[in-house]
């Protein structure tokens, strides 16, 4: 029998059921529950799809870590660390670096010129170096080379034969007895100085090559940088509107070599990593296209007394001989397993050529015995790492090599059979150009950059060590690439990764 409490409870349940049935609450609750569950399932499904994107997520990396060039041109052209060479305030509209595509056609001056003001004075200076001046300098070069070598003509001929065929002890003994070292040029390195007016920013990018024009009367140099610029600096014209600096942009990649034509200084050959070789003809005011290829051109040189051909490295290890008159290649040889970093010719025997390569070797070749067959080396010197230069001494009796293995190699003797290795810190990074030791004005000294002191080391070939260091407070960066003026003793140029050029002169 149910109690009174139980009856009331059951009555309340019945009324609540009737009320909920009248309001249709259970049906609406079922619909709401189903909608909530479906929304929850769709949300889970959406998140699951997002967790597996169709394309991979690309992490942001700087251009430097990806091995790419910066997307800006760096400092503007008018910038300089030295107030002598820059205005107190930047110009209102500093010109930006050109970034045009590679042009396979002649490039007029008005399109290539990328400096401030006009290049009219530069053109006049170059044109005024007339044929008579060039002939005088060529005669001076020949007289000086003859004086430096101090070797009779018959001895030179005997040595040439000996380089081709090294099996005659009679000739060997005769040459060893008769050949003497080149004449030593007397000058005091203590009197070399760096003045503020001989410091300037010639190009905006890292300099790969710097060269003096081989002329006694005009102190002018050219510099090629990483951005494809070729800048000219006339040190005797520091008072004009451009401070004697004129910059052109004939290439789109690093300039690897610059060569002043031997019989016409108003013509300059430039090669570049963009695969182009251009001939700057100042009289015509144009950069003519001489050669083009799809591979980078890492080095270029001309033989003494031969201005109608040039030798250059195309791609990796290929040496190409180009005939300017015929407009075609006369020879091609695979000389190295990797790229050729430098090409140089013996000043006393132009048939003998020296090459240096990233494959860790420097080689001597006799062009007369190469022909179209597989060439054979006269002499090979091996380093444990890349060799970035191999240059003959002014007398032609020695060869200096510079390697990343922290050694300067010196080859001497009648057949370059004597090899000496001098320890020197040649370590660099990707932001500065590799070191290349260059000969001074005789066979006594080699000049090479010093990384720690930001100076220039002077190495004695006799003592086989550094005997002097050129330093100055004006030098604020490492002078990686050097060049000694071929005619003016004591004039030395050093170039940096920031586009600056320092010129040491006698006091």
Automatic annotation (TrEMBL):
**What species is given as this protein's source?**
Eruca vesicaria subsp. sativa
Function, as annotated? Specifically binds 5-hydroxymethylcytosine (5hmC), suggesting that it acts as a specific reader of 5hmC.
Region listing for Disordered, in residue ranges:
33-59
Q: Which UniProt keywords apply?
A: DNA damage, DNA-binding, Repeat, WD repeat
What SMART domains does UniProt report for this protein, alphabetically? WD40
Entry similarity comment: Belongs to the WD repeat DDB2/WDR76 family.
Q: What is this protein called?
A: WD repeat-containing protein 76
User: Which GO biological process annotations does it have?
Assistant: DNA damage response
Residue ranges of WD repeats: 333-375
Alphabetically, the GO molecular function entries are: DNA binding
């Amino acid at each position: 029998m149910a109690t009174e409490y139980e009856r009331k409870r059951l009555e309340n349940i019945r009324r609540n059921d009737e009320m909920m049935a009248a309001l249709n609450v259970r049906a609406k609750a079922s619909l709401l529950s189903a909608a909530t569950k479906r929304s929850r399932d769709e949300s889970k499904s959406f998140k699951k799809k997002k967790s597996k994107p169709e394309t991979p997520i690309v992490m942001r990396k700087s251009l430097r870590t990806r091995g790419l060039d910066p997307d800006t041109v760096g400092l503007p052209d008018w910038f300089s660390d030295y107030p002598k060479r820059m205005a107190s305030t930047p110009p209102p509209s500093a010109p930006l670096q050109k970034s045009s595509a590679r042009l396979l056609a002649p490039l007029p001056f008005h399109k290539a010129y990328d400096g401030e003001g006009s290049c009219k004075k530069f053109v006049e200076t170059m044109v005024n170096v007339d044929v008579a001046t060039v002939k005088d300098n060529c005669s001076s070069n020949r007289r000086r080379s003859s004086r430096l070598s101090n070797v009779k003509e018959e001895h030179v001929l005997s040595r040439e034969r000996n380089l081709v065929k090294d099996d005659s002890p009679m000739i060997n003994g005769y040459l060893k007895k008769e050949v003497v070292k080149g004449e030593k040029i007397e000058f005091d390195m203590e009197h070399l100085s760096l003045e503020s007016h001989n410091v300037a920013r010639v190009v905006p990018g890292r300099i790969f090559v710097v060269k003096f024009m081989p002329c006694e009367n005009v102190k002018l140099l050219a510099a090629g940088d990483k951005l494809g610029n070729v800048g000219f600096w006339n040190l005797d014209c520091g008072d004009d509107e451009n401070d004697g600096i004129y910059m052109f942009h004939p290439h789109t990649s690093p300039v690897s070599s610059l060569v002043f034509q031997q019989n016409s200084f108003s013509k300059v050959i430039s090669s570049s990593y963009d695969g182009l070789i251009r001939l700057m003809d100042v009289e015509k005011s144009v950069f003519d296209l001489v050669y083009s290829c799809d591979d980078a051109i890492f080095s270029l040189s001309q033989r003494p007394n031969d201005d109608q051909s040039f030798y250059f490295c195309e791609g990796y290890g290929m040496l190409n001989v180009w005939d300017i008159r015929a407009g075609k290649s006369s020879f091609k040889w695979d000389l190295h397993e990797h790229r050729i970093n430098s090409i140089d010719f013996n000043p006393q025997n132009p048939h003998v050529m020296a090459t240096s390569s990233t494959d860790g070797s420097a080689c001597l070749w006799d062009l007369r015995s190469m022909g179209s067959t597989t060439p054979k080396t006269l002499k090979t010197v091996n380093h444990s790492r890349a060799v970035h230069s191999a240059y003959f001494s002014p007398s032609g009796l020695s060869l200096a090599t510079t390697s990343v293995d922290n050694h300067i190699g010196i080859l001497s003797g009648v057949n370059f059979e004597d090899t000496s290795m001098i320890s020197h810190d040649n370590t660099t990074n990707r932001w500065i150009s590799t070191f290349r030791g260059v000969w001074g004005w005789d066979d006594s000294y080699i000049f090479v950059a010093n990384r720690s002191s930001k100076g220039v080391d002077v190495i004695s070939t006799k003592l086989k060590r550094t005997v002097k260091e050129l330093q100055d407070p004006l030098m604020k960066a490492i002078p990686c690439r050097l060049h000694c003026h071929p005619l003016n003793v004591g004039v030395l140029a050093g170039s940096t990764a920031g586009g600056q050029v320092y010129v040491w002169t006698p006091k």
